[in-house]
Every structure is written in C-alpha cells, then in structure tokens.
Write a structure and sequence with these properties.
- By secondary structure, this protein is mostly beta strands.
- The chain has a domain of 42 residues.
- 12% of the residues lie in helices and 38% in strands.
- The protein contains two helices and four strands, in the order αββαββ.
- A four-stranded antiparallel β-sheet has the order 1-2-3-4, with no helix packed on it.
- The relative contact order is 0.21.
- The mean pLDDT is 78.
- Keywords: Hydrolase, Protease, Thiol protease, Ubl conjugation pathway.
- Its EC number is 3.4.19.12.
- This is Ubiquitin carboxyl-terminal hydrolase MINDY.
- It catalyses: Thiol-dependent hydrolysis of ester, thioester, amide, peptide and isopeptide bonds formed by the C-terminal Gly of ubiquitin (a 76-residue protein attached to proteins as an intracellular targeting signal).
- Belongs to the MINDY deubiquitinase family. FAM188 subfamily.
C-alpha cells in the first residue's frame, strides 16, 4: 500500500457498505504529518441512518505481544 493511502492528505474516506454510503474520518492532524502516529489512532464512522444514534468510535492499533 502506498504512503498516501496509509497517511492520506485528508483523513476522510467515503465508504459504500451494502449499498449504504458512510464516512470514515480521523480528527488527529498529527496522523497527517507523522507516520509514527499510525501505531495507534482513532477513527470515527458515521452513516447518517436514523438507527445510528451516535458516531461510532474506532481505535486502530497494534496488539501487544
């Protein structure tokens, strides 16, 4: 995977899951400029559906030993 996919210029991805469009995004600007921040970071998932009461919070990181 190229470096621009691992650390994109803008951490926003548009997703289509089973025909439903969603947004996956990050809020830590250090993720944009420091590849070391990729060890553990947070993403948020929002699909705008009425049944989604709040934005889902995801923690992405390596598992410890």
């Amino acid at each position: 995977v190229g470096s621009m996919l691992k650390t994109p210029k803008f951490p926003i991805w548009l997703c289509s899951i089973n025909g439903t469009h969603s947004v996956l995004f990050g809020t830590n600007q250090l993720l944009l400029s420091d590849w070391k921040m990729e060890h553990v970071f947070h993403l948020y998932f929002y699909n705008g559906q009425h049944k989604q009461m709040r934005t889902a919070h995801l923690t992405i990181g390596a598992l410890d030993g």
